[in-house]
UniProtKB/TrEMBL annotation, chains A, B:
Family statement: Belongs to the FapR family.
NCBIfam families in the record: PRK04424.1
Known function: Transcriptional factor involved in regulation of membrane lipid biosynthesis by repressing genes involved in fatty acid and phospholipid metabolism.
Keyword annotations: DNA-binding, Fatty acid biosynthesis, Fatty acid metabolism, Lipid biosynthesis, Lipid metabolism, Repressor, Transcription, Transcription regulation
Top-level lineage group: Bacteria
Protein name: Transcription factor FapR
Source taxonomy: Bacteria, Bacillati, Bacillota, Bacilli, Bacillales
Keyword set includes Transcription regulation: yes
Matching InterPro entries: HotDog_dom_sf (IPR029069), Transcription_factor_FapR (IPR017275), WH-like_DNA-bd_sf (IPR036388), WH_DNA-bd_sf (IPR036390)
Species per Swiss-Prot/TrEMBL record: Planomicrobium stackebrandtii
DNA sequence: CCCGCTATTAGCACTTGGTACTAATATGAG
DNA sequence: CTCATATTAGTACCAAGTGCTAATAGCGGG
């Protein structure tokens, strides 16, 4: 068996990569070699045992939990808020938020922080964005901390409308400005999306 | 020890919840009882053993991997693209994209799909959003499929600027309109963020 | 044809972090 | 004091390994 070994090891690597939950025994059946051979292969390839692999995946998830939660809830951490008036949040730009090519933060993360803050300053989960205008003034890069300040600049409670202006900055320099026209849903008017 | 048992079990539950990676042995030290007591407690509380806990976390992560990847890369799946001209992407709204209260999709997901598409239609990772105007016309709810169509409506290659209009719809009904002023970076001009 | 080399397989002892079960001992309430 | 519950101890066993030694295959070259 002159080639098979290298081939098998490559295949083994791939197989484990896309299903880390496979045991040596299952692999030995898959590749029709003994369990020991699989073990030797893993050694040579420095692939850890099943339990360690699972643990790594789990630890990764567990650590991500903190940073993936805010992706769907409020983006950025709200550090100060006065309902219907103003609010401030901070958002630390991490490698996963930027373009790989130039390390500049993707626009939707800045928007998400600002929009989340605009929603939050209104009133807990009952506000929708109707319109908005955005300006991305300077590129933001990984490692920077973006401070967003939201202010309710106009309120028309009778029409359930309000305008919120959000200014985001890094080191006192403004990087983003957004104005949001918000619609405040009343409890009754909730159920009318097609 | 009349109360301690219930209290310990509650504390045990909490302890395992915020650190699923703890062994019975470590817990027995933490609560100053024997390992067996910890095991009995776990039985009563139907808490699985360490490895099973880790596995659950890992499986969860693994399944999430598919849906968390598009969050940071292109949001939505691009199904057609003509560079510098137009592009189409679809985005299936899932429960994790909506407000819990009213099941309406959070604005930043619609923005992210549109913005990603605007970036994509320009030229591979070298475009930045400068300004944009958005209109959220109708609420989108979980389960719906949003089709976004981007079109380059104006191009000023000499100024490295272009305008892209994105119209998103659900079942032929327009739900979102965004116009994006894009800046196309040249390879040389990349390195100038503070 | 045998020598040598790598690859493969086998076997055993030991490890972690448990389960399952039995039995002994506390401990506190009535 | 007694009974029930709680706790602890101890044993056998399991999965999925590691680590190590040793036997065997397969093959290419001289």
């Amino acid at each position: 068996m002159k080639r098979p070994k290298k081939q098998r090891q490559q295949a083994l690597k791939d197989s484990i990569k896309d299903n880390p939950f496979v045991t040596d025994e299952e692999l030995s059946v898959e590749f029709d070699v003994s369990v020991q051979t699989i073990r030797l292969d893993r050694m040579e390839l420095a692939i850890p045992e099943l339990r360690e692999r699972i643990k790594h995946v789990a630890v990764k998830t567990f650590e991500d939990e903190v940073k993936s939660l805010p992706i769907d809830e409020v983006i950025g951490e709200i550090i100060d808020i006065e309902l219907d008036n103003k609010a401030i949040s901070i958002f630390d730009v991490k490698p996963e938020h930027v373009f790989q090519r130039n390390k500049i933060a993707r626009g939707h993360h800045l928007f998400a922080q600002a929009n989340s803050l605009a929603v939050a300053v209104m009133n807990e989960e009952l506000a929708l964005t109707v319109k908005s205008e955005l300006q991305f003034l300077r590129p933001v890069t990984a490692g920077q901390r973006v401070v967003a300040k939201a202010e309710v600049i106009e309120s028309h409670p009778e029409k359930n409308r309000a305008f919120v202006k959000v200014v985001s900055s890094v080191d006192q320099q403004t990087v983003f400005i957004g104005t949001f026209e918000m619609y405040r849903m009343t409890e009754q008017s909730e159920g009318e999306a097609k």
